[in-house]
Structures
1.
Amino acid sequence: MLGGIYFFLPFLALSGLINSELTGVLDDCFCDVESIDVFNNLKIYPRVRKLTERAYFRYYRVNLKRPCPFWPDDGHCAIKDCHVEPCPESKIPVGIKSGNYNKYSQAANTMSECEQAKELGAINSTLSNKSKEAFADWARHDDAQDHFCELDDETSPDAEYVDLLLNPERFTGYKGPSAWRVWNSIYEENCFKPRSVYRPLNPLAPSRGDDDGEGFYKWLEGLCLEKRVFYRLISGLHSSINIHLCAEYLLDEGWGRSVWGPNIREFRQRFDTAETKGEGTRRLKNLYFLYLIELRALYKVAPYFERAFVNLYTGNAREDGATKDLLLQIFNEIKAFPMHFDEKSMFAGHKIEAKTLKEEFRLHFKNISKIMDCVGCSKCRLWGKLQTQGLGTALKILFSEKEIKNLPEHSPSKGFQLTRQEIVALLNGFGRLSTSIYQLHNFRQLLKENR
Ligand SMILES: *[C@@H]1O[C@H](CO)[C@@H](O)[C@H](O)[C@H]1NC(C)=O
Ligand SMILES: *[C@@H]1O[C@H](CO)[C@@H](O)[C@H](O)[C@H]1NC(C)=O
Ligand SMILES: *[C@@H]1O[C@H](CO)[C@@H](O)[C@H](O)[C@H]1NC(C)=O
């Protein structure tokens, strides 16, 4: 029904991703997992990694202080680093829980799991004075641009720059009912009810008109429009985030030294075919799906950045030139990669205009961004917001094909626009997916060795 979008997925399923060797021949789109892996791990990952270390991309402006608008009962926990689920002191220390039986590690003996989660989830908001001065200049530059849409976070006085390099996405110990509720709410968002086809859900409502029962149920089926596409995107994001947490797990902490690295047991629990009753494979398929979607968005948005006057402004012309060169290199690699899919097929079954659909996606992502304000752990909130904004930006691009094509060559402030925040989120979000595919490769090696 959704046509081309699923063309590569069944093959990934067959290959078993983890338990067996990964060999996927994906004839419909000339793609296979190996080619995506090779392309990403050799061409994309090293460059995106370098890009995200540059000044333009390493500082993300975000409001981490917005209260959760959905469940007031967490309201009492307003302290920035608080509201990790309370748990009894008697809980097993994390040093033991992580499968690392180092009873002599300081952390294992002195910190409860909650205290540690709180500490690991805290944001390091250190910024040099020089950066702070630069931000004022950036703001002046960005204000002079003409952007067509802004998110609440951007204009809020509570929005602050965070140095992403000082706050890597990794294990924080944030889990339990609070984390579960957040993901659950996000998954609940996956049903679109476009206002353009609004009809009351109650089958007995008078406006049902002359439909016979069958027609009505068919219509009802069609109501949750792109549910499956949306679900796959969210699931892919969820998988990606979990891979990062498994790959950057706190393996040991003691004597003032933290050791981070891959936790195979944790990885198996989330992705192993047998341990997840097949769910794990589906989760990983969705990661590849999401990767290709964002790749497509970058391909589409390249002309926006290729215009000579578009600079990634930090005020340092040499730095800005080098950053832009690197970004264009990435676009060139993406253009040379043959495995693109046709996003038009994504919504081919529905006669809803791209404009309407774009608005629907925008609203849903805005809501997801609000749900992110309910994430208890600050660092998780930061990366959650960044990655959903990145995906939201990718979708905005995919729905703006015409606008990008019609960009005036010499007029910077007309037509399709991206804000700095969107650009930073887009490239860092894609960088996270690229990292996941890279880390997945490492996990496969580790699992092979451990067999
Ligand atoms: C934050 O990062 C800086 C620079 O790496 C470091 O010196 C400082 O100790 C960190 N602060 C916290 C609270 O971890
Ligand atoms: C940064 O600026 C603050 C306030 O302006 C000042 O107190 C501090 O000494 C400065 N730090 C450095 C390292 O220059
Ligand atoms: C946004 O998400 C919340 C929490 O899941 C939900 O209660 C609310 O109905 C959603 N709002 C919209 C406009 O979709």
2.
Amino acid sequence: MSDISAEALRARIDQHLIYTLGKDKPHASIYDWRMAVSYTIRDLIVEPWFAATRRTYEAQGKRVYYLSMEFLIGRILEDAMINLGLHDTIAAVLMDEGITLDDVIENEPDAALGNGGLGRLAACFLESMSTLGCPGFGYGIRYEHGLFRQRFEGGQQVETPEDWLNQTHPWEFERPEARYTIPFKGHVGDDGHWHPAETVLARAYDTPVVGWQGEWANTLRLWGAHPTELFDLERFNSGDHTAAAAPEALARTLSRVLYPEDATDSGKELRLKQEFFLTSAALQDILRRFRSEYDDMSLLPDKVAIQMNDTHPAIAGPELIRLLTDEHGLGWDVAKDLAQRCLNYTNHTLLPEALEQWSTWLMGRVLPRHMQIIERIDRDHQAATGCAPEQKIVHQDQVRMGILAFVMASHVNGVSALHTDLMRSTVFAQLHAHYPDRIINQTNGVTPRRWLRLANPGLSAVITDAIGPGWERDLDRLQGLRQYENDPAVIDAVRLAKRANKVAFSNWTARQLGVDIDPDAMFDVQIKRIHEYKRQLLNVFETVARWHAIRTNPDANWTPRVKIFGGKAAPGYFTAKTIIRLINDIAVVINNDPAMRGRLKVVYPANYNVSMAQRLIPAADLSEQISTAGKEASGTGNMKFTMNGALTIGTLDGANVEIRDHVGADNFFLFGMTAAEVQKRYQMPRHARSAILESQQLQDVLQIVAEGHFNANEPGRYHGLVYATWNHDPFLVASDYDSYESSQRDVDAAFADQAQWHQTALRNIAGAGYFSSDRTIRGYMDDIWKAKRLGNDKP
Ligand SMILES: *Cc1c(COP(=O)(O)O)cnc(C)c1O
């Protein structure tokens, strides 16, 4: 922990304001203050950062490299201040200047270099690795434009580019010495020598990631793409300005924008090039660092563990073999063996539309040398396993990256117990039979520093009062809260903390959306990417049924609810965008219906991101985790809610299963089919139709939606959606509807007893310790990376 005084901090902030920003205090804007505070905090991280690097060199420790196309970081300043223990001191220093720290914090744009859960997991992992003192690097792409900004126009999603780098990014250091040439295309000669036709330069930009109490910091190294040659001066001087700048434009497109697809595979050439760009730059960097310390290549697997976050960096297998053979002169068998012992693969989804594959034609054109290497890996693979053609890496002219990643990995992990079981029994069943020890489970987690201590200071104080300080690095200690489950004072403190968060959120929606919501109503929250398998539609249908029932019988004893939605749809995902529009359409009708006053509201703030999650999750009473069983690999939003004392209504899917085990079945609203029942249900012809015919309520809902109650000026708007629900319903909304609706009645009844509700909330918080990403990272270190902690040796 930094023990720097308030006076010293004040002096440093002044110094940066004047000499780094060139601003005279009376003229400093909030932006200037943010920059000055950020540089001040960054300076304090540099010391533990250097110390961590020195320590790793001295100990000759194994380093962990986390390769990910996405890092969904969010804001950095507040997290760094919290981890350094300086949040309150900085607030006081700024207060003396008449500046509010919250204004400074909110001036920072989110670093949104990811789509959703997968990218956020990578960010939580980096923070936990630093907290645990695990030497490591995150490798990613420095997208100029992160995930698009979402607006609603007439209820429809409109995307605009995000431009976080438009302002100075005060956290990064450019590393002019770390630059690598990344080859593409061209041809491979008969001697096996690759003659690339295009090259781009990868340049490193480092951001330190500091752990709890500032004891260790690792590096997030993001690669920016630059032209290998400056522009063509001759052409420029001859007046052909556009052509002269063409190589530069071409190179820059590589790190220009994050692909906004989540759980789908777009199969575009630029995406393949981005994946190779990240992977090759990272591997060249890893080998350079290794060679600077060791001569003996056979030590590589003892000093280097590489984690592939999903298949996006799965070209790492062939690329590492290429570098070891073509550039470092090793033979095939040795190179392949070394590569395989360094590499590991995390699978994040079993949805067939998300399993990456590239046509052999495209792979052969963009990466001709790798195509040859892949074919040779495939021959070895077939010889070793005698597998059927469908189990080969290359099948029907497609390179299947999941199989490639599996074959080239030491360990392959799923992200929840259920997901790992399904990996073994479905998509990877044959490979699992050949390599029975390769698939292991590492249930996801989230960092409690950002998702509890930072996001929910009120509840954090209640926890510290009850169980003492230090739980932030040892989250299992939350179990100690169970001894207070019959202590009315503690339960009331939990209630008051929630109530304060709800008031703060109501004030925010009033300011931002001009919508008033009652902090005493139940806040029922579903925030996540909009996807059919996540079943926002199930929630929407229940909302329509509730609206209809309230209209029919307004004086019944309704539990007031605010349905809160948040989330973006991939720009090309038509059904998801239709669901967004439907939510906004029903919101207009419901919120303007006098009969709903004090009973039901629907709010959908646009542009869900990490910062919105931090604001909303602490204010939630009910967490909607309602995906079709077997479809959500883990979920991590579910864990953040539990940690913050929301109760879950959910299916037995992903990590919900383990959350329910840890908080106790009585403290969780379970509904719906199991994964096995889902599989059986799919076998039933016309499963949706028969479910609908058995549910009068669902029939009514579908009729109301189809009749255009929520879209009077375009009555046919939702005909397609309703038709699909009757006839296709690929995620079994209809089949789970009655079970969900009935569970929602239980939720209403439970909320009416506030004392018991908050007791249940306390049990949820107490059971959340397992879902710290510190636990997950310990699992990776012990079971996969075999890496040692070099930081502090606290628990
Ligand atoms: C945690 C998080 C997610 C993942 O949420 P799920 O409910 O697990 O899909 C997505 N986006 C953001 C901004 C998050 O913070």
